[in-house]
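hey m, so remember when u said the tokens were messed up on ur end? i reran from scratch. heres the input so u can diff it against urs
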Amino acid sequence: KIFDDVYDIDVTNETAGNFKIEESPVELISGKAAKGNFGSGSRSEVLMKLNKQKTNFAVALNYLNNHKNYLKLFVFDATLDKKIERTYEDEQNEIARQNLELDNDTMAVYLTEKRYSIDLKDKEEGGKYSYSVRKITNSKEEEINISVKNHYISFLKTFINKDKVFSVGFYSDEGDFRYGGVCIYEMDFTKLEILKSNYNPFDAQFI
């Protein structure tokens, strides 16, 4: 057994696209499980995402092989027909994959990543990292980078509202011992740019 957190996904025509997760571990991929690359946990995780219409789902797994960190990404439809398969390599272990989001209409998957780089190690204010939201389809990939500027953002959640893509999280500033507000980024993947970015501080009563 390689992955403790991988489960069989049972999909039948009778369920009409309603996926059922059976808690029986199964080997999906060869390699040694990596630690701490999904979310904020310290253990390896397998990330699964089901779209709202329950017509397709994505599975992403992170593992180490020969001291290199890999991400394996799959997207399946309700008949278990594989629509997307990608493998990503992170030799320097500088990427924390945070979440997946699936588009109901196009079967595109959005992968949000927190990235640490040498270029940001000398940054004087704010987090020494950036975020990226990657749109992945069966034919191409597109990416938008998000700078945290002088803020600290521990986590960003990406979601789709009709034809718009948003990333939302909590931010703090230098010297804060708690979150100071909510940050929101609105993105346009046709232009590959951030349309709006707002930092909305909590009022004193909330804090």
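this time it looks ok to me. Confidence is low (pLDDT under 50) at residues 1-43. if urs says something different then somethings off w ur setup not the seq
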